[in-house]
């Protein structure tokens, strides 16, 4: 127990930037999704993909889901 | 030249509007940063996640800093080229299908200027993303694993940038020759894989093949530089120019709707 909490405090500052970058990707993708008038496929499905598919989810939305208008 | 500048600015705007200017660098940064972190914590991860019996001691050799950066480049060679393919598979064909290309080329703009502007915008974005991600990997490697020889690391980056340029140029050419983005991505990635596979299976017969570029980049980091290094780089540059020429040639003769 004690060991794992010690590891966590060592781990957190190192991996925090990873989470921040992922968060930026997810938030920007969600904002773009909210602003888009039309998407390929239902919007609620894209919300799930963006939030739950790691890294590739937002990228897939930008590449496949958005319609250029 | 001024024509080219105008379309180039339009291309950058397009990259920003399609969010590529944002997600390409971020994904490269994410890939680059996670490699040294995963390497550093691998013994802990194995100890916590593996189904090892109590008291198993896992001994792993501590990786060299050059090795970690070389592994990062390996990641970029696989997932990175997939990302580049996703980003640029429709560079020309989507504009052609939507009619945007016709609208632009109705104006007195030469088709080669149009294509070259697209190509340079792609290069700037791919090189920028690669550099950002690589610097992230470099920073974490020197933080967690050990100092990296700066000159070697920069040489490796430049060589790898040339390899990604080959792949990006293949993507642009694919999007000129083929109407479907998926077909362009498949054929361009297929050619890139073929290049690197043949180069690794026949290293002596294809010592100058541009497919040796990723290996050469890792070689700089691992301290084993092949004799043909200069020739490989020249071959890579020549191949890029040849693919670009094939794309311009097709672009000039293309019928627009």
From TrEMBL, chain A:
Residues 24-66 form the Cardiolipin synthase N-terminal domain. It is a multi-pass membrane protein. InterPro entries: CLS_N (IPR027379). It holds the Pfam family PLDc_N. Keywords: Cell membrane, Membrane, Transmembrane, Transmembrane helix. The chain crosses the membrane at residues 12-33, 45-64. GO terms for cellular component: plasma membrane. It is found in: Cell membrane. This is Negative regulatory protein YxlE. It comes from Paenibacillus radicis (ex Gao et al. 2016). The lineage of its organism: Bacteria, Bacillati, Bacillota, Bacilli, Bacillales.
UniProtKB/TrEMBL annotation, chain B:
Signal peptide: none annotated. It holds the Pfam family ABC2_membrane_2. The keyword Membrane applies. The keyword Repressor does not apply. Keywords: Membrane, Transmembrane, Transmembrane helix. It comes from the Bacteria. GO terms for molecular function: ABC-type transporter activity. One of its GO terms (cellular component) is plasma membrane. The chain crosses the membrane at residues 21-42, 73-92, 113-141, 153-178, 185-208, 228-248. This is ABC transporter permease.
């Amino acid at each position: 127990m004690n060991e794992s909490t010690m590891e966590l405090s060592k781990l957190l500052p190192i991996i925090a930037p990873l989470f921040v970058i992922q968060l930026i990707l997810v938030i920007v993708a969600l904002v773009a999704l909210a602003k888009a008038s039309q998407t390929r496929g239902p919007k609620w499905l894209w919300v799930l993909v963006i939030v739950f598919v790691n890294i590739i989810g937002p990228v897939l939305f930008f590449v496949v889901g958005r319609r250029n208008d | 030249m001024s024509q080219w500048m105008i379309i180039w600015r339009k291309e950058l705007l397009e990259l920003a509007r399609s969010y590529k200017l944002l997600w390409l660098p971020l994904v490269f940064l994410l890939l680059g940063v996670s490699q040294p972190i995963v390497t550093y914590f691998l013994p802990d991860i194995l100890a916590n996640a593996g189904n090892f019996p109590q008291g198993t001691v896992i001994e792993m050799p501590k990786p060299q800093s050059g090795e970690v950066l070389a592994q990062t480049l390996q990641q970029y060679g696989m997932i990175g080229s997939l990302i580049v393919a996703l980003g640029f598979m429709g560079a020309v064909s989507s504009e052609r299908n939507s009619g945007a290309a016709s609208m632009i080329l109705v104006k007195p703009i030469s088709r080669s200027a149009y294509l070259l502007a697209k190509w340079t915008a792609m290069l700037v974005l791919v090189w920028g993303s690669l550099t950002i991600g690589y610097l992230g990997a470099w920073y974490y490697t020197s933080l967690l694993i050990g100092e990296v020889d700066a000159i070697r690391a920069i040489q490796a980056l430049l060589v790898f940038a040339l390899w990604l340029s080959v792949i990006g140029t293949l993507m642009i050419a694919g999007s000129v020759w083929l109407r479907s983005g998926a077909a362009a991505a498949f054929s361009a990635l297929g050619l890139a894989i073929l290049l690197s596979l043949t180069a690794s299976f026949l290293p002596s017969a294809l010592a100058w093949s541009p497919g040796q570029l990723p290996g050469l980049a890792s070689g700089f980091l691992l301290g084993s530089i092949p004799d043909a290094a200069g020739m490989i780089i020249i071959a890579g540059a020549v191949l890029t120019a040849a693919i670009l020429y094939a794309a311009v040639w097709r672009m000039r003769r293309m019928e627009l709707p």
